[in-house]
Amino acid sequence: MEKTLSIIKPDGVARHLAGKVIDRFESNGINIIAMKMIHMTKAQAEGFYAVHKERPFFNSLTTFMTSGPCIVMVLSGDNVIQKNRLLMGATNYKEAAEGTIRRDFATDIEKNVVHGSDSPESAAFEIGYFFNHLEIVGK
Questions:
Q1: What does the alpha-carbon distance between residue 75 and residue 123 come to, in Å, rounded to a whole number?
Q2: What is the pLDDT at residue 139?
Q3: pTM (2 decimals)?
Q4: Which residues of the chain have pLDDT under 50?
Q5: What is the pLDDT of residue 138?
Q6: 3-state DSSP of 109-133
Q7: Are 25 and 6 in contact (CB under 8 A)?
Q8: How many CB atoms lie within 10 A of CB 100?
């Protein structure tokens, strides 16, 4: 089974959308095999998003991701990376397909409710960033 990381971002948690987002995953055959609520420090957010360090949005992104609690999850299933990305929709919610999480719930390009790994390599890094092997239950 393929694994991926998903984050319900601070805007999604603050707006009480966690249950709706989780329902989207479970209703589409995605298994949640680890989950916890965290509140990232600036250093943790900068480490997690280090791949974007040279991008102009890095500071605002890491500031936003530390603005409140997040829910981090490990998702599992066949082709779960692609399936999750399709459920999330495009990063820019205005370009996201109808019925996607971002189209339905995002309020701007940064406050777009969810994050998901974009490849097996990023999923391995991202899962390891937030979870140890004892916290992941199941396949």
A1: 10
A2: 63
A3: 0.95
A4: none
A5: 79
A6: CCCCCEEECCCHHHHHHHHHHHCCH
A7: yes
A8: 19
Question: Which phi and psi (to 5°) does residue 58 adopt?
Answer: -55, -50
| Integer Cα distance of 10 and 14 in angstroms | 6
> What pLDDT does 81 receive?
98
Locate 116 and state its tokens: 């998901």
49, amino acid identity: Y
**Residue among 21, 12, 70, 14 nearest 41 (CA):** 70
What is the enclosing helix (H) or strand (E) of 36?
A: strand 31-38
Residues with catalytic roles: 115
DSSP H or E segment with residue 6: strand 2-8
Largest CA distance in the chain: 39
Q: Are 123 and 131 in contact (CB under 8 A)?
A: no
